[in-house]
């Protein structure tokens, strides 16, 4: 079978020996640089029509009128899909049968639950005609006042936060701990609504052939998308073929298939032709998830020696009026700092927005900037250096559970990061440092952490008669480098050079690689690949060691080693046989095996598993004008085994930049009267530009973890944003002496009053 | 999107005739207009593409010492013209502090004068906006307005003019050359943009069919080249509109200020010339007390239009800083971060 999507090798990837640990460049890099990597919206099957969403301008109410006639009479418009004529669905879009199922807006009625909710789809022969058709619908509404912001509705305690985490958790007596403390801080922090804003908007090209469905769409979870679509349309998952070889970023917003993608499939069904639907940038501020705002109150107590006596972390957040996702911000206090008493709790209100969802370190990021700021404030209250304070309260076991860590090289992260940064020269008191131009200089730090998760995945390995190999798993490359890192793992597991094997990923007909989320994709799919490769080698070994004519005959007890397309007798490497010969002697054209991965329940119940890091930031602040610039950012991270240090460094850099963005730039500005986002574009939804990004370093600290999975991988996708955001915020305090507790930090927040 | 006519005239007079039709708009680089059309903010029936008109893309040095800049000269080309940058350093610095490199490569001088406000209520077609739809009201008034105007605003409109380029231009007495149905006329840039008053939809003096063909700087503008800076506070280091900005130009002789030019950006519905402050500066020593007095005068009439009180103090400070930097002397080359408060420490220079 010709692989549908497979990358050719470049000479820079041809190497012998171990591939894991090598800083290979991206195998898909050249394709992307040359514009040859085919993203979802690049597909144009014959006869394809263009669909454009019409979205609501109000945040709450109902659509009372759509001028369908005007839209339909526009030249080129083929059809208009509204609640009146949408194709029937087999499942109610408002049904919810598992925690990973979120309610979708699929034109099931005329209700409007948030601004930018799809209210119709116009299908036309050209994008321009569809766009104008959508404008001509000129909707009229019955409007109700929207609920906007953290104080706009009655609060309640959510039944669970994140994905099934308890809303409240406590260990020890926090009030007693606070009462016994000689130093206390009690501070409230606010984080804003943020949107994923992946460079590639959500897009879909859908084509029906009877009940078979062919789709090009970016997905961080092919098998889950397949299942969701199958349920909605009442067809078998095997009848759905999804291609998703490249994502232009996902960050969680492409983890679950979103409403607009389903609408593209519905539109294709309605018109009986292939349809392409691509979200406009501003349409991404609504139906595809976001990071909910939080208000977090943290109380910390410490004794005279700077030892924590209590941490109380309470987070208020929002969900939509119609579904549940509660940003688990307070959970950030579970794992980092040793305290005899810890309490975390959440409350929430319902507002008229799209449902918030997973966004790059959901809960960890929002919780981290608040906790790391509070720890910094507590260190200052104790008169201690923030690093010394953190080390004083270093958690030898996971504070909330009392479990030992499977591995934790955080102390080494602190040591190497601090040394590289020159932290020991930091004055304790803020507003002491100036540069030669008179700008205020501040140094801040934060601790990074993210759980080392494992989901379930499967892979299929094949050795062909010519000795070459194939590894297949429906993995997802979101830009992080999955094509490369997984190929490295696969090559090692097969005992082949990269050039001798083919790695297939990115389509739904391959074994389920799980979800590319929770920073667990490399660990999960990588372990499945490793196991598949190991299994197929074991089958080869069985053939060879039982074959009287093989030089490996009878080597079963001694064992064999797979290397460079041959099996070698472990105790006598002069005796070996090539894969091709082994298969030839057995009369086989190929041999295959599958491998699975799943979390080991014994290890999970015994150990706390987390990646860690320490981030050090230097900022400069203009004392008169309030302009802030990060001038140095150094992180040291321990995340188990590193498959590809080049890709990992890129991931970590991206996360650290995002942390800086969290502290200084990013926020969706919402009009409290209309519930519409006012800066739904990349000119005014600020993320750092190149000129904002300082010289950065990411040190990778060696860490061997025998418990997380067979390969010892912890994952690096999300940890970079944690710690970094707090480090920048703390550096701003150290520069200015002004503690800003509402993020992002703005110019006016750090302006000192006029001297006269 | 809405269907529209596209015409590409080959002469200025053909262009004027084509654009005199109702709902016609001139198209140059389209860096603002096309966004506005896609967002449904403006709906021209006809685009008159002026990019092929001959003779509008030149920088001419005039015999009287002035310079004439064709309306189609690209922002980047103007900023990187060595003679222009040497003679009018604050204008080059302002140009390089605006937008992104890609946009500067496309955007034109004439178009820059006509760019529309970034007020989010102007862009949000479901909001009331007197500028977009006269008489509909102004949702910015009680809305998210921390970046809105503090000078010259009216009940009808509190938007700001987003241009960086126009700020030093207005300070240096730039003149706009306009061709229209009745021939050619000239308008001082200071008078080109109109205060919002009760008619914020009327942003400038252009009549239907009027085409900006050039921009002229008088020879006198060159006399400030040794002490001219543009400074811009923004929410990230590049690709952001000014929270506030200032262009300061001084002629210093014998240790005293002989003549001064000062204008502010990001504070009003038009680029804001601070003439009263210039009078304070003239004849004084270039010291902090003088600069503070000038800043007080420049912002004397300022009042917040919403949740933006901080911009008044910030504007005063940026005036003081811009004057201080100008007095210290124009850098030999434009800093790596043009117009940034951080440019002074970088040591790097703008090499592009």
Sequence-ordered SSE layout with sheet pairings:
The complex is a heterodimer of chains A (about 750) and B (about 350).
Chain A: H1 29-33, E1 49-55, E2 61-65, H2 68-72, E3 77-81, E4 111-112, E5 118-124, H3 127-136, E6 140-143, E7 160-161, E8 165-166, E9 169-171, H4 174-180, E10 183-191, E11 203-209, E12 212-216, H5 222-233, E13 240-243, H6 259-271, E14 275-278, E15 294-302, E16 308-320, E17 342-351, H7 364-381, H8 386-392, H9 410-421, E18 433-434, E19 440-451, E20 457-464, E21 469-472, H10 482-494, E22 501-504, H11 521-545, E23 560-563, E24 566-569, E25 572-578, H12 579-586, E26 590-597, H13 601-606, E27 610-621, E28 628-638, H14 645-664, E29 696-700, H15 721-736
Parallel strand pairs in A: 1-14, 12-13, 16-17, 21-22, 28-29
Antiparallel strand pairs in A: 1-5, 2-4, 2-6, 3-5, 7-8, 9-17, 10-15, 11-12, 11-14, 15-16, 18-19, 19-27, 20-21, 20-26, 23-24, 24-25, 27-28
Helix pairs in contact in A: 7-8, 7-15, 10-11, 14-15
Chain B: E1 5-7, H1 12-19, E2 24-27, H2 33-38, E3 46-49, E4 59-61, E5 67-70, H3 75-79, H4 82-87, H5 89-96, H6 101-106, H7 109-113, H8 120-123, H9 166-171, E6 175-180, E7 183-188, H10 189-192, E8 211-217, E9 228-234, E10 242-253, E11 256-265, E12 272-273, H11 275-281, H12 288-298, H13 310-328, H14 343-346
Parallel strand pairs in B: 1-3, 2-3
Antiparallel strand pairs in B: 4-5, 5-8, 6-7, 6-8, 9-10, 10-11, 11-12
Helix pairs in contact in B: 11-12, 12-13
